[in-house]
Amino acid sequence: MKDTRRAAGRSGERDSQRARGASCSLEARAAAGIAARCAGVRRSLCAAALAAAGLLAAPVQLPAERPFSATYDATRQIHLEGSVTRVEWVNPHAFLVLLVRDATGTVARWAVEIGPPLDLERAGWKRTSVQVGDVVAVDGVPSADDRRQAFARSVVLKRTGKPLFTRPTARRAASSAPAPRWPDGRVRLGPPPGGKGYWAEPSATVLVDRSAGAIRLNEDGLLVNLSDVDRVAPFRPWARALYEYRQRTRLRDDPLARCVPPGGPRQFQMPNGVQFIEQRELGRILVLHGGGDRNWRVIYTDGRPLAQAAELVLSYYGTSVGRWDGDTLVVESVGYNEKFWMTNGGLPHTEALHLTERFSRPNFDTLRYEVTVDDPRTYTRPWTGGWTLRWVPDREIEEYFCEENAESTFLR
Amino acid sequence: MWRPVLVLTCLIACQARFAAQEGHPLTGTWSGDWGPSATTRRHLTVVLEWDGSRVTGTINPGPDAVPIGSVSVDVASWTVRLEADGKDESGRPAHISAEGRIEDLGSIHRRLIGTWTQGGTKGDFRLTRE
Q1: Per residue of chain B (130 residues), what is the pLDDT tens digit?
Q2: For B94, which of A285, A296, B105, B119 could close a Cys bridge (C-beta 3.0–4.6 Å)?
Q3: Choosing among A244, A253, A337, A403, which should be mutated to test the B contact, i.e. which has the most B CBs within 10 A?
Q4: Are the beta carbons of B73 and A238 separated by less than 8 Å?
């Protein structure tokens, strides 16, 4: 095992930034006779880490749904070689469980995250692509704490030297074709007749006040410079302090880690995308969520007035009414509970939250999303941000349940 | 005999999970106790709400409810001070003054811990956000 501190790139973090769920525990078992090797330049650190982790006697903890930044230390790298004892091909993240022997001959169990199984399957990989007993070499980033866990940037099958679980990194070129339209000329938010597809690949996974100019954040919503806090949004003092606390603690309390739904703008930041089902005859649009708990949201377009938040059962997605303003769908929503973070990075809100969302489709492949946040208990003025999503053609959003990776089911 | 206790414990635990709120850290129902010593404790429930300009609240809602006169929060340290005019156990007016600090701010089980003075009795209090 090799563990070297250095600035690491962020490739792979986008995948890992996918919704992360409840902690998962793998019982440790002795596995004598399985060839595994721990090699590298800082063996003392390796040995210390193994000792601290209680070696094989203690369970391996897999914090599967936490933000990447709260789970892994991207400033370090790790090299592991060991035998596969288990393949956990579960959403939202597949894991290999390895037995790794350090320089002293001590064997420890490691959990290696290899990516979302949906993406792996699209790239042609299967749960049988690696077999129990195969010896693999892993390069990646280690856990931010003393867990025996790593995020793999590469996995190589030792007996063949072939890389495993690779995925294409090149983005598909955007189409300049016009947006599809209904017979009456209105823009379709879904596929053309007979087609299928959904929206994903958000251009930004953070929400900031667009009047603030460029602010550097990572894909989890962590500020590169904490001094930029005041530029993110026009916080009231308590909200600023809470947001800064969440940033300082690297988002460790993110409710998404408990599989709480990604309400508010965050639903359009989730990697598994959204699908619009326009039920024009019923006067409503369904927004199906590919991530989180695979929820759906209803936007009523039948002309009903926006409800009074005080009269509503407060919910994660609020109550939404929409109207078309030319080619833009304008959606007003109220009635949010306070049980979720409305964006990656931990922007707070209260029950007074009122969102105005604008959806437009300037061409076939692009959905422009803009949201105005009006919560006078949290922010000193309304503010606006947004991003775009890309069309994923010829596919349906696929089955994905955050809860599937919760401890109770992971151990089944 | 233990079954009711287990069921009650489970219900309390479930309520704590489902009642998690991520808005203003003080908003919600806090329960615990206060007292002058470890063995002399009184149940304490404090309901607080942020209305956008100030925090309002009630101590022990119900027949013996005490409206909180003022709540101040120093968000730099998450120190909370509250003042109220209640009664002591004999029914005589007793001013309540408490100062505490929110611990484990980001947790759904965050705590408010500090000193509690009611009339001539001084003690400590410990509250957990339900």
Answers
A1: 445 544 444 444 444 444 578 999 999 999 999 999 999 999 999 999 999 999 999 999 998 899 999 999 999 999 999 999 998 878 899 999 999 999 999 988 899 999 999 999 999 999 999 8
A2: B119
A3: A253
A4: yes
